[in-house]
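Email to the structure team, subject: Exopolysaccharide biosynthesis protein model.

Hi all, the expression group asked for a predicted structure before they design truncation constructs. Nothing fancy, just the tokens so they can compare against earlier work. One-line instruction: predict Exopolysaccharide biosynthesis protein, return tokens.
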Amino acid sequence: LATAKYPRLISENLFKYAVILCKKQVYRYSLKTEHSHSLLLNIKDYQTIKQIIHKLYPDYDKSFAKIYENNNKFAGGNLFISKYSFLEKYCEWLFPILFEAETKINMSDYNVWQIRTLAIVSEVLFNVYIYHHKLKVLYKPIYFITEKKRNYFFIGFAQFMFKIVKNFFFYLYIRPGDLLSQRLIKINNPQ
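Reply from the structure team: attached below.
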């Protein structure tokens, strides 16, 4: 690998952009809708975050609503490259929210995935921060670097299978108003 070129490319791009982010994932519905139908996350936690944002940074209310409630694109993973000054300002904004959330969200009964709530919330908040400040962003794909070629196939296959499984489970959720849920209600509550 010609690694010498990467620091130069990064610094050139950080001259033009505030932050380099991983490509956004596109969901079928808004992040709020996706999370509310997920068995993996507790939607009440996001209501808590919304209240904390309103208390600490009320000028971010509209940005939070735009990103979380009215948007289906999301740059996750907390993977980014930025200048230190950007990181410092972002952390000064983020950590007061997370520290307060830690005191208000009871995770004692959470499963292995739900215990990551604050990490997942921070991914959403990063997108809120970027949107709120109207920052110029360069989106790049994530590459897995390995010495074994067969791992490329495995990683690609694993990502493909994850999408299939995610979509399969998404369609299994019963939503209020769905024809299936109406039929199940009739069957279970004959009148």
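The radius of gyration is 20 Å. Residues 167-188 have pLDDT under 50 and may be disordered. Ping us if the truncation boundaries need rechecking.
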